[in-house]
Amino acid sequence: ATAAATERFTVNFTITNLPYHSDLENPDAAKYKTTRRVMNTLLDRLLKDSSIGPTFLGCQTTAFRYGRERQGDNTVVDAVCTYKKEPSTTALDRVGLYREVSNKTRGIKELGPYSLDKDSLY
């Protein structure tokens, strides 16, 4: 039997109720560490409860960026998620997964306590 390879995909979205702060660029800052841990947990919960749940391994937030949107100073979140790709399975259904995430975030509006820019999920 061939061992399952791991595959990665990136997730990017904008949080509209988390004002950007320069501490979010500093991996040693308490604000960065706390926000990263919360993001990883929220993304993990979201995707574990999706169609890729059985093969889902986890997400790691890789960066927070300043996001200037219509309503002011927002924070853009970049994350990389990993799953096991079994040789027998088809490629990741990105469109289907996007729809699931959209439904689970009320139309890409909410992730836990955070409000999302509905046009920002990639």
From TrEMBL:
InterPro entries: MUC16, SEA_dom, SEA_dom_sf. Residues 5-122 form the SEA domain. Pfam families: SEA (PF01390). Gene3D superfamilies: SEA domain (3.30.70.960). SUPFAM superfamilies: SEA domain. This is MUC16 protein. It comes from Centropus bengalensis (lesser coucal). The gene is Muc16_3.
